[in-house]
Amino acid sequence: MDYKRPQRTIIVGGGVVGLHLARRLAERGEEVELHESRREVSEGADRASGILSISGLKKIGLDHEDSIVNTLYGAYLVAGSERLRIASGRPMAYVLDRKRLAKSCERAAIKAGARIRLGSRLVKTDLQEMSHDRSNLIIGADGAVSMVASTFGFPAIREYVLTYKAEFRSEEIEETGMVGLYFSRGFAKGLFGWHVPYSSDTVELGLGIDHRARLTSSAAFSYFMKDKASTSVVKTRGRALSSHASMIPLSTRPKTAKGNVALVGDAAGQVKATTGGGIIYGCLCAETLSRTISSGKPLSEYERSWRASYGRDLGFHRLAHSYYSKGNLQRTFRILKVLGMDGFLARYGDMDSPSLILKRFLLRGLA
User: Fold this and answer.
1) What CA–CA distance (Å, rounded) separates 184 from 191?
2) How far is 234 from 229, CA to CA, in rounded Å?
3) Domain region containing 229
4) Which of 106, 137, 294, 320 could form a Cys-Cys staple with 9, CB 3.0–4.6 A?
5) Are 174 and 214 in the same domain?
6) 118 and 14 in contact (C-beta within 8 Å)?
7) Domain boundary among 196, 223, 249
8) Which residues 6+ apart lie within 8 Å of 157 measured at CB?
9) Which tens digits make up the pLDDT trace of 261-302?
10) Quick one: 239 and 267 in the same domain?
11) Are residues 131 and 231 in the same domain?
């Protein structure tokens, strides 16, 4: 049977990745319709942290300028008594207001010609009926617990973390241009705790734990708040301004396309397992998907293409996550400091691309 080019793309999910895909497809002249169950795309957008690398933002081309709330120059990593400080003389990442970013992406998609249907809660029978019309493509950009994935029998994502975060007004933040990551099998088994400065007087504290942990993420967060790791950085804390819990996938689905249905972003598990960040790779894969659709190729080409382009780096992120979630990092940090890796990472590190860091390290070593 000859492949028949679909005439309409239906995107389920109005997060940043879904909106970015809608924009790119509309810019390529495709008919695209996005369904989002929320009344506003900004609703609940701040459940996730908003740290995005400047290099990654340049690659994906998001309209992010109006969303910047802080600029980061580095990070320090803490494990027990060891602290690895990686600071650059140039801006490395932005802290973005996720609600403003979502609205900006929505405006860009509408301007490009995409139809955005807010308050549109599709159920399984709706999706099945839409898929029966072979002139439709169905794209799941509907998060880790994807309705599209379950409706069409995609294999499960095997590994998740549960996160909890809260924003605090504080008068005393150690360094507003540095983010802190705190590794501990006690309060953050499976990921880490963190603090993210929004400004000189506002900070986000959060942590992630393995989904198989025997306590809730909010309970683990309570332990983190009492630990000296957080109290040593944010010395004066007021009441929480807001708090959020979420679920983040840490592994990709074994299959992300079948027939006229495909998954992208968190729904596909296209997330950095080291940090749980999903916007950069989700949007890169959305770009790959938009090219596949506009070229008239079957969605199996999207699967092949995104794995060829980004599968290696996502695999490196999973390996790094597996190492730090099981091992004692105090000794590792001590060795890295002796080797001068803190300085190397400050100068040549890339928070999105482990393979690029490895390549630079090998080239510097040979030189």
Assistant:
1) 8
2) 9
3) 160-249
4) 137
5) yes
6) yes
7) 249
8) 144, 249, 251, 252, 253, 269
9) 999 999 999 999 988 899 999 999 999 999 999 999 999 999
10) no
11) no
